[in-house]
Amino acid sequence: MTQSTLPVPQNVVIVGGGIAALEAVLALHHLGAARVRVTLIAPEPDFVLRPMAVATPFSRGHTARLPLAQVMDEHGGRFIRGAATRVDAEARTVTLTTGEEVAYDALVLAPGASAIPAFAHALTFGAHPTALNGILADLEEGWSRSLAFVVPRGCTWPLPIYELALMTAEAVWSMNIDRAQLHLVTPELEPLDLFGTAASAAVAEMLDAAHITVHPGVDARIPHNGRIDTGDGPELVVDCAIALPVLEGPRLGGIPCDAHGFIPVDDAGLVDGLDGVYAVGDATDRLIKQGGLACQQADVTAAHIAAWAGADIEVPSLQQVLHGRLLTGTRDRFLRRDAGDAEGVATEEPPLWAPAKVSGEYLAPYLAAKNVVHLPLRARHPAPGIDVAVPLTRVQKRVHADILGLITLGALFVR
């Protein structure tokens, strides 16, 4: 059965309560509000902008919780608190852990992905939100003198570890702790090389100025606490190691997935082999898991559904731009790299989405209007970040190698 022969999708169900899900809600309201009714299903009652988690230990900004029921009330929809466990594509229903079945005409899956610790003998960022405060205190009091920030093999979005490293360095030097040794270990060949040479060079310069020793091209292993196997190089011995997690897909019943649990989709977000079922964001098999890309995927999916429902709109193709705001302890700088431009351009002019730390066409202004995100472009002393934009003409399917350091701009293409 083709999409054109399916019933008009008056009843759209969105599963998830994160960035991709909210962008889909807002985009559908804008594009097809008079033609569809939207139901949002999420296990938690509030939306939380998770990329802001890196700012909290350093008092660089914060984000308020946004009740999902309020969002849906404002946009003429309804909210059901619950976790989806199974989809019956033939019956067109979603089953929740409570046993309740929710019917749909069109379904958008945006449940996100699960963060899995990459190492048993390292602190996983995000698993213990207040742990970094203790590490900073140990550095200040002299109980700890060395710290490593580690990007594991298979990490699909390394930017947060750079934020942690740079803001830790700023905190350390502001406390006049000149004995601390900070390291960054990554499989990337150059710092943040997925953004291109100009951004990578700017980040490398900042790391050097912050006295952070970079160990590039390393598939790290941490067999014991504080001991990092760097492969061919000497073993790195530190007092503490902080690592990013790796991600696993949701593995929803009735939905196809790859070996890592991620949902295969096409450029419109349609799930392979299922009619009227879409997926967007971290749950999909797109290589890079990042909020800005998820928003762009959600916008295209929303346009497809709205047009299917009869809205007189032009459905865009998926032409993605990778944005990244890197919170640091130094200065603001905003970089852009256009297709075919090997060097890129650096500027001090921030993009409009910068204060929200998410580049969604609908979500960023909505969060700004709600005053949900508090992240000044400039701190009282140093400014908080670099922003980077890299247009992507394709986003590659997930590859099992997953060694981010081997990714070049040419590998960041939409399938």
> What is the terminal separation in angstroms?
23 Å
Q: Please state the structural category.
A: alpha/beta
Strand order of the largest sheet: 6-2-1-10-21
What share of residues are in beta strands? 25-35%
Based on DSSP secondary structure assignment, what is the total number of beta strands?
28
Categorize the overall geometry. Answer: globular
Query: pLDDT average, as an integer?
Result: 85
Relative helix content? 10-25%
Return residue spans where pLDDT drops below 50 for at least 5 consecutive residues.
379-383, 393-415
Number of helices: 7
Largest sheet: 5 strands, parallel
Task: Specify Rg, calculated over alpha carbons.
Answer: 22 Å
Detailed description of the structure:
The model is unreliable at 379-383 and 393-415 (pLDDT under 50). The two termini are 23 Å apart. By secondary structure, the chain is an alpha/beta fold. 49% of the residues are buried. The strands form 9 sheets. A 5-stranded parallel beta sheet has the order 6-2-1-10-21. The chain has 7 helices and 28 strands. The radius of gyration is 22 Å and the shape is globular. Helix 1 (19-32) runs parallel beside helix 6 (291-308). 21% of the residues lie in helices and 25% in strands.
Structural topology:
Layout: E1 11-15, H1 19-32, E2 37-42, E3 46-47, E4 62-63, E5 66-67, H2 68-74, E6 78-81, E7 84-88, E8 93-96, E9 101-103, E10 106-109, E11 114-116, E12 123-124, H3 131-141, E13 146-150, H4 159-174, E14 181-185, H5 197-209, E15 212-215, E16 221-224, E17 227-229, E18 236-237, E19 240-243, E20 246-248, E21 277-279, H6 291-308, E22 320-327, E23 333-336, E24 345-347, H7 363-370, E25 373-374, E26 385-392, E27 394-395, E28 413-414
Parallel strand pairs: 1-2, 1-10, 2-6, 10-21, 12-19, 13-14, 13-19, 14-15, 23-26, 27-28
Antiparallel strand pairs: 3-5, 4-25, 7-8, 8-9, 11-20, 16-17, 17-18, 22-26, 23-24
Helix pairs in contact: 1-6
